[in-house]
């Protein structure tokens, strides 16, 4: 696409009449620049992208989008906010891909990855080609690609959507993180259905207050569109049991569909029965009732299922078809995943890394544990510090023996993170084993028939981030090794 054509999408914001090279790609990382790229300089949290503009030109960039004039031998277009402009340009460059498929966005503190996989299963069973963008990967039809962020930057995102169009994807399902909403990574995404799971504490390092965190989440609903286009209705699917839903209803002009267990809602679950084998409940929708038998565990899973079924109903999927699809789901990788190597007690690897998710998982385990509950848990470095004492407290409240350990200390001192956790549980019974491998081995060595071990926080992750190192580490592998060595 020619530079002038591309810039025309910035409308009145930019008047540029200089050279008009062909733009072959848009990049915001100089290391990815190719011949003909437009390099966008972003002022980041750690470095200033403007500093890489010269290197981008050396790598072949034929134009630069910047927030200040730069002395370079290629056109430099100056705009007030490059991040915003980048989203507009990315959407245009890739041919407005999200206007050509059904797009479902899921936001909330917990349950996004799980709900997105439930929806992937439902739409896949409808013979649709699906796309998925989230914490674990980006998946386009049957191809899986690694991702760095739960919600990637606007260029990576629009490129993925473009690839989805080429792969004839009918429905794309994506996790929308609060960071992405706050940083405008999803500007230009034309959502059809926006889903809210829940709002509890996390990421206060970034958002500072729960009110700001909620405001960031509300953007998904306020950005849903303010028009009523007959062949493209928009839906906000909201958890009626979560207080924040009221604010999101106010924020959106879209049709609101609610789900819940405790409060009145359009789609309701009642008579929930949790056992070691799974979870059963009665789904009530439009005066009809269905008994649903899940292989997934816990009340929190019922919420995810209600969210997925409600979104599928908005997309016109038959209720019974959705239920059948969901009943077949055995689980999502690293979410309440059972590790079995012939031991006499269940070992569960789970991605709980917030106070609320940890509490939910441990409460669910309490429903079937006959004797002791061990929980191996840590808190991430360079992340919300205020959740550390809270997670420790919850571990002590709901487990018999909490073992505090490391979970991606990143640039922080692991011992300090553990001290921050311990500050929440002075005088209570717990053990500290900084090395995660040893912590898992210890729990396994102590457990007996009737006990349950929960290894929380890393789920599907296959690494431990220590300083700048990315070390291979997989809770499931470590648990298996420990069981076999017992
Ligand atoms: C706080 C935050 O969100 N940071 C994101 C942000 O990084 P940043 O602002 O620090 O960027 P930077 O490193 O300063 O670089 C500035 C610019 O210079 C460019 N650059 C940089 C270095 C270089 O050598 N060359 C170069 O061109 C960069 O590409 C960038 O355009 O922009 C980067 C590129 O888009 C993101 O990868 C990065 O996410 C980091 C890795 C991160 O940890 N983010 C977390 C907090 C996050 O976003 N998490 C949510 C999920 C939360 C959840 O699931 O609940 C997510 O959506 O992943
Ligand atoms: N609806 C829910 N409510 C509360 N906790 C949940 C819910 N669903 C899942 N969890 C818990 O949260 C953990 C993470 O779930 P999931 O990966 O689906 O959430 P996520 O929102 O994608 O998280 P992330 O923000 O890290 O990507 C699960 O392992 C489980 O412990
Ligand atoms: N999306 C979350 C994942 C946390 C996973 C946990 N293992 C950690 O590293 O804190 C985050 O980046 O905060
Ligand atoms: Mg996720």
TrEMBL record:
Entry binding sites for meso-2,6-diaminopimelate: 383, 407-410, 457, 461
Pathway noted in the entry: Cell wall biogenesis; peptidoglycan biosynthesis
Keyword Cytoplasm: yes
Residues recorded with modification N6-carboxylysine: 217
Residue ranges occupied by any Mur ligase central domain in the UniProt entry: 106-312
Binding site for UDP-N-acetyl-alpha-D-muramoyl-L-alanyl-D-glutamate: 149-151, 177, 185
One cellular-component annotation, GO: cytoplasm
Gene3D superfamilies listed in its UniProt record: Mur ligase, C-terminal domain (3.90.190.20), Mur-like, catalytic domain (3.40.1190.10), MurE/MurF, N-terminal domain (3.40.1390.10)
Record domain Mur ligase C-terminal: where: 334-459
Molecular functions (GO terms): ATP binding; magnesium ion binding; UDP-N-acetylmuramoylalanyl-D-glutamate-2,6-diaminopimelate ligase activity
Keyword field contains Cell cycle: yes
EC numbers for this chain: 6.3.2.13
Requisite cofactors: Mg(2+)
Chain sites annotated for binding ATP: 108-114
Localization, UniProt: Cytoplasm
Record's comment on post-translational modification: Carboxylation is probably crucial for Mg(2+) binding and, consequently, for the gamma-phosphate positioning of ATP.
Keywords: ATP-binding, Cell cycle, Cell division, Cell shape, Cell wall biogenesis/degradation, Cytoplasm, Ligase, Magnesium, Nucleotide-binding, Peptidoglycan synthesis
Its biological purpose: Catalyzes the addition of meso-diaminopimelic acid to the nucleotide precursor UDP-N-acetylmuramoyl-L-alanyl-D-glutamate (UMAG) in the biosynthesis of bacterial cell-wall peptidoglycan.
Entry similarity comment: Belongs to the MurCDEF family. MurE subfamily.
Record NCBIfam families: murE, PRK00139.1-2, PRK00139.1-4
Name under which the protein is recorded: UDP-N-acetylmuramoyl-L-alanyl-D-glutamate--2,6-diaminopimelate ligase
Species the sequence originates in: Peribacillus asahii
Upper taxonomic lineage: Bacteria, Bacillati, Bacillota, Bacilli, Bacillales
